[in-house]
């Protein structure tokens, strides 16, 4: 963030990162069907950068493995995320970053649902509605400034 902008959460609590996922011998065998699981979804989004801080969503405890649900058989992924403060103005941006990362990383067969964890944000209902409306998401991604900020969140520094 530029020096003239004010941080909402000046001193966020920083959490320990989960260990790296250990590969099994069948992970590299293309002849074995390996369904997507919650850890795989978490691994895709854990290193997204927070828009306000030089920290990942995992380090801020915004995303956790137990907040990722996946049904490989039903082609469905649901991610709940928890903003660091109840009035976080960056919640929509964080949700869009998660959605965009999953839409780019997962096969097109998956329906992706991104939601704020129940009871953790003052505008939870409105933001959830926005994040899961294809037309609203498409319109938001047409905004070049917003897309630039999202790309900074998605690309490691």
UniProtKB/TrEMBL annotation:
The keyword Ubl conjugation does not apply. Residues 40-114 form the MIP18 family-like domain. GO terms for cellular component: cytosolic [4Fe-4S] assembly targeting complex. One of its GO terms (biological process) is protein maturation. InterPro entries: FSCA_dom_sf (IPR034904), MIP18 (IPR039796), MIP18-like (IPR002744). Gene3D superfamilies: 6.10.250.1280, Fe-S cluster assembly (FSCA) (3.30.300.130). Keywords: Chromosome partition. It comes from the Eukaryota. Belongs to the MIP18 family. This is MIP18 family-like domain-containing protein.
